[in-house]
């Protein structure tokens, strides 16, 4: 092998080593942020050095809940077996749980409200919105656009059992953006 070929390989080898070091450094930094800094909306309680508990702050109906650049307020909830009007009706598989919510855009760009912004939680169970059922309510908030500094009031619909509706720990999870990098919980029933 000639000296010229050896010299051409060194920059490649050094570049690979630098990339590996950067990846290791970034992964260590992510671990530190996850342990000490926590996630947005999370509070860390230190019982001792070996054991750490995470507890999320929980809001109630009528509270303004800030998630990133978005404020959410749950105004009311109601349950019904059927939604729609005299001409177009839809009956629930279980019960429709309708959440009336106000959303304010505090950001600099308009965004479209997605069904993925909302999930009902009952313990470990998660329930998605009923997008088909949402088409039968007049004030559907899903797929509406909100400009900066504007608010939008409307409803989201879930098709869930009466047992879930009555559950003391039923919560609405709200998030910022489709990927949900920031989340908060709103208590819908008294614990």
Written overview of the protein:
- The chain has 191 residues and is of the alpha+beta class.
- The chain has two domains: 3-55; 57-187, Immunoglobulin-like (Sandwich), CATH 2.60.40.1240.
- The protein has three helices and 13 strands.
- It has helices spanning 3-37, 131-134, 162-166; strands at residues 42-46, 52-56, 58-60, 64-67, 70-84, 89-105, 111-112, 118-122, 125-128, 145-146, 151-160, 171-176, 182-187.
- The strands form four sheets. It has a five-stranded mixed β-sheet with strand order 3-13-12-8-9, with no helix packed on it. A four-stranded antiparallel β-sheet has the order 4-5-6-11. Strands 1-2 form a two-stranded antiparallel sheet.
- It starts with a helix and ends with a strand.
What is the topology?
Layout: H1 3-37, E1 42-46, E2 52-56, E3 58-60, E4 64-67, E5 70-84, E6 89-105, E7 111-112, E8 118-122, E9 125-128, H2 131-134, E10 145-146, E11 151-160, H3 162-166, E12 171-176, E13 182-187
Parallel strand pairs: 3-13
Antiparallel strand pairs: 1-2, 4-5, 5-6, 6-11, 7-10, 8-9, 8-12, 12-13
Task: Please give the radius of gyration in angstroms.
Answer: 24 Å
- Please tell me the CATH architecture of the largest domain by its name: Sandwich
Indicate the CATH class of the largest domain.
Mainly Beta
Helix and strand content put the structural class at: alpha+beta
Mean residue pLDDT? 79
Please describe the biggest sheet, giving its number of strands, its sense, and whether it closes into a barrel.
5 strands, mixed
Give, in order, the helices and strands: HEEEEEEEEEHEEHEE
Beta-strand percent range: 35-45%
Shape: elongated
> N-to-C terminal Cα separation, in Å?
75 Å
Classify the helix fraction into a percent range: 10-25%
Please tally the helical runs, counting DSSP H or I stretches of 4 or more residues: 3
Q: What's the structural domain tally?
A: 2
Strand order across the largest sheet: 3-13-12-8-9
pLDDT under 50 segments (min length 5)? 28-55
Number of strands: 13
What would the CATH topology of the largest domain be? Immunoglobulin-like
